[in-house]
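Protein entry
_____________
===
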Amino acid sequence: MKASPMYLLDSLSNNDVTFFIPPYQRNYEWSPDNCKVLLADVEKVADSNLENVRTEHFFGSIVYVVEDSGFGIPDKFVLTDGQQRITTTMLLLMALRDSIQDEKYQAEIQRRYLQNDRADADVEYKIKLKQVETDWEAYKRLVLRTEIDASYKNSAVHQNYQFFRKALEPMSDDRKKNLLVKGLSKFSIISIQLEPERNPWENPQEIFESMNSLGKPLSLADLVRNYLLMGKSSQQQTDLYNGYWLSLEKRLPGQLSEFIRDWMQADQHRSFKVARESNYKELYGSFKEIVRGRSVETLFESFVRYSHPYAIICGLEQTGIHRIDQTIEDLNVIGVNPAYSYLSEVLAAREDKLLSDDNVVSVLTGFRTYILRRRVLGMTQAENKFYPVLGSRLGELYDSEDISDTLFSQLSSQEYALRVPNDDEMGARLRSMNFYNLGRSRNYPRLLLSLAEESLTKSRPQWDDTHLQLEHIMPQKLSPDWVRVLGDDAEEVHQELVNNIGNITLIRHNQELGNKGFAEKKKTYQGKSGLQVTQNHVLDRDVWDGAAIKRRRDYLLHILLQHILEVPARFKRASNWSQNERASAQFDSRETLNQLIGETIEFISNPMLTAHVVSDSKVLFEGAEWSLGPLTKVLKERSGAKISQSSSFHGASNWSWDGTRLVDLDI
């Protein structure tokens, strides 16, 4: 989703686009009373600007999906929200065109806003706004200034056009021109582009239905805004809305409910449910409890003050400090929405001069290390509830002589599920994991290799470079030549190492190298396409085989653990979590395993060893069914531990699921 502020008429004058209203939209429904309010707003803004009082009017958001229409034809902006406002604006422009005596002005309005000079005679593209079918004929005839049949004169399109014509009739030409130049041209919007092909959840029709369905409840932001303005006079409401709320809408388009929830978390340093339609009222009830006794002005000031660092963390604004902005971009690539409340507090401390730029870089970099270490191990459990609480300890960082050490002390003093993975865990995981498929969108391997490149060259590949791609050196599909090079164990080597970090690299290239031979690939890596992280420990090899992959794997592991994901020395091999044992007698393993049937659990001493839960008392390991206690004992013996034959083990304390010991699970 891309959002940007702009002036409404600038958007309408863009000859590279034509606005389309999709079939699932409702008919045009604004009444003459709605048009009267719009015209009054235009006149008010025009009069203020004529008196040299610089004034603008926020006209809401316009939500659309871009459809490429082909060479020589304007792109379609398929409207998801904004149909009623844009249609009414077009009707006002038509009325101005038809009531102004100046023919050059008439032609300019027609050329700039109502028709598209770049389009050919195809009417659908020639006219700037394509209506739904029920409104199209009346609208088209008004744009083209052709006779309107009687059957169309009762449509809302025609009726509202006539309202504007009648309202403009007594005005002078200068007055009408000023309504356009000093009034309507100062109407601003937030333009929001959905990207459903990239983000499937941005389904335009579903978004439209959720915004326009009958009985749709007010959002958390709506409820909070109305609560704060309720009981105020009209002028006070106007002043508060224009002075505070409008800036929030412009700064955080479409994110105000999420913002309110995160503000609550930062204010209370405890977690609240994610802002969703199903729990807006519940969150609203909590909000009223939190703010009882506080003045409305104080709350609005707090919102606006917090919205600036929040917008930066969301990626909507920047600090101008490259190291800070780059690390925030990294965090958003990783996906840290649950931590927005805490990270916004960090930036707010910077704005209050409690943390320097260098301090903030240390905190953000340390937090990035914490998150990436956990993601490598597939850990996310318990984070949502932890981040708001972490904000309560922010003051410990202000006077710290070693910000990084203090931060990791805080992170390492949590329960097992929130631990900081140490170097031993990371090394074991990275050596054998499917690095290529780390994360759902492969953003993690791209980011880690980009960070490795920056560590080596002080230069980061551009994330939006369309030629930047992950590359398998040994290809995903072996050709006969590759089989010959790999020898008798080709299939085993391929299966074990094809997606290993030692075989995955990052290149700038606009063609697929596929299963080309290693010698040919090296030529590409040596050229402009090759990054340093691709050339090192690759170009010096004549043959790319299992040994070469493992050699490069160990090289990359050293870079990652000692430079990119480095933790202070005392945390490198420590447990990095707070011991919080529960008595075995209080734990029913059958109840927990019953909830995990079909899931895979890990042996804590060696996470590479996994078992599949098949019942409330048995797991499948190496083709046989085991109870957790006896299996734990056997695995301890395998590791070389001296175990008495009479010893027994509490299996739930030695196995984990999704990063949490079974004994600590609450499911």
